[in-house]
Q: What sequence folds into this?
DNA sequence: TATGAATGAGTCTTCATTCAT
DNA sequence: GATGAATGAAGACTCATTCAT
């Protein structure tokens, strides 16, 4: 009847809220520091709710990481749209990177997923998706090799941002991407 | 005499063993998962020994991270030597990267330091040293901008290796580095 | 069902039992010697229960001390009632003191509070309450100065009892109180 | 040869220093908070020295408490001298009390002894000495009963000072002592 | 003899997980 | 089903005491 009661009738959304809270916390405090209590408080649900929907904290953590992976997908969708509309030129990529760097939360979220993936084989596929998809957008234009190299460089840029205070300049980014993506003069090795 | 006998008294090396055990564990399970118990077991010392030499687990962790940092320095010294002897060409860099990727332990150690640095301001300087030094070697030849870009790319390569099973090909690395480090045709922006 | 069965769920009274156990122990072994384990054992609850209800041992200690303070208040209420009914004469006070001395547990409890208060500024107010209230009852009859002096003397009597085996005689108490509370012959300093 | 060597040749004085350090610490942090390490640091001796001279921490603590008792004796000697020279009048006693209250360290030291004595039967005799001796000085003049009452009052004054910020006035002290020590008008109960 | 390293018992505290209500 | 109380296993840390050197 009341709002509280209404909410209680929707286990599905409560579950989602818990996962979302866990995901937030993973980004904020690291995957190893999330606890049932922390999650319950953040989600605004009783402690028991966090064990009701998830057999194990580990399971909840995994689902939260999956949720962060979904966020990555959302950001990739945006990138794909921009690349399709404006073309995958170094200038456009540079602009996209700079937008990405400006979103500290997203940067931290991606970092958390990758960090967790290093130690957890199950997460590796998730962590790879970001660069795989980005590579996928670039392959039709530049071929697998250069596309991969560009994605690798962009990953390097993101890690640079996580441990430096000064961001890399647009000029640096664009120059490097231009160099990476330029056609080879030797036609025997053009793309693969 | 009996099994309860105290261990030999050699504080210096015991301390070193504990730090080494902690460093190993940081690399293996991540900086947030090391505990006194784990370290004591790995080092083969009683639990109390890990608290005798270090006021705080945090202090022990820091020292272990410093120890990993020293390893990084050792690797950098090797890189510098090679670059000075053979020249900092894309081919030589590629060869060095591939050597680096072959040492899974070193790769994981560097990753652990960087990962820890993301959340700990005190470690950021340590984590930056690797790319700063590498950049420093390249600056005299390529200028700051391209040197930095190359270092960023190489960091990207290392992160790629941490979450992929198949390594990047030498051709990809060399092509990309060649592109990143090539002289600009536009003389107004050559180096900085 | 089996021996591993959880205890009944009655948080309120369980909390009270823990505080009561802590209070008992403070009286018995001193505020500095109470530990979670000791309290848990005395209260007949598992160790974890003592930390579930109180964030900190300090918090538990405070609550126990408060609880002892409440006992003091109860005794004071009794004293007030007697004084109001029979008048605050030396004879009545002497009788009350002797009743107080007969209750070894109460004597020890008051001592524990005062002892703890010496080192802990937050407890000082609590420790002062006893003599302040007693003084308050006497002020209307004898004025602040003599009332305070009488309370101070009575405190001395209680401390005497804590470290002596033989109690002070009623005659001694009554004589001293008579002397302390007698009207001054010099009218210039009568009461204040 | 050096000063350090000379000191090492005098185990007796080193022992004394350790006991003195322990006594200081008991007064400062309470009898339950002294540790070997704390004592060693305060005394400026190596940790091992504190276990070399005393089988047990408890033994060291006891000796330190004895040492505090000796300090009490020294203060009593002073009091005796003053009382013998100026007479044990309320005015002289008041002056002495006020001197005593001004020495916060001594006040704390006496308190520590009494507090420890409450829980430790072995110390009770020590704790009683102060008031017994004071009583002894007054008995020849006032008789046992009034002398005891005065000593009890003075103890009350000292405890008052330990938990109040404002000291009792000289007028209050002198009035009370005058009342306690005055000759009884009824000759049947004069002294005992 | 003097020192301080070695050890393990014990302290507070946090939590995952279970399960009574 | 939903809640949060219950429990015990760790975790970090401190220290008395022992004993090699």
A:
């Amino acid at each position: 009847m009341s709002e509280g009661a209404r909410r209680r009738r929707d286990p599905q959304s409560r579950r989602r809220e818990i996962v979302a809270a866990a995901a937030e916390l993973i980004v904020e405090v690291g995957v190893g520091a999330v606890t049932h209590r922390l999650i319950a408080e953040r989600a605004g649900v009783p402690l028991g709710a966090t064990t009701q929907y998830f057999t194990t904290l580990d399971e909840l953590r995994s689902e939260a990481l999956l949720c962060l992976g979904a966020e990555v997908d959302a950001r990739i969708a945006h990138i794909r749209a921009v690349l399709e509309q404006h073309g995958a030129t170094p200038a456009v990529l540079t602009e996209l990177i700079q937008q990405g760097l400006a979103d500290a939360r997203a940067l931290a979220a991606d970092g958390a997923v990758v960090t967790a993936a290093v130690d957890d084989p199950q997460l590796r596929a998730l962590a790879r998706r970001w660069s795989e998809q980005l590579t996928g957008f670039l392959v039709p234009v530049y071929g697998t090799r250069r596309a991969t190299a560009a994605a690798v460089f962009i990953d390097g840029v993101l890690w640079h941002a996580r441990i430096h205070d000064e961001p890399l300049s647009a000029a640096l980014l664009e120059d490097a991407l231009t160099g990476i993506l330029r056609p080879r003069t030797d036609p025997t090795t053009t793309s693969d």
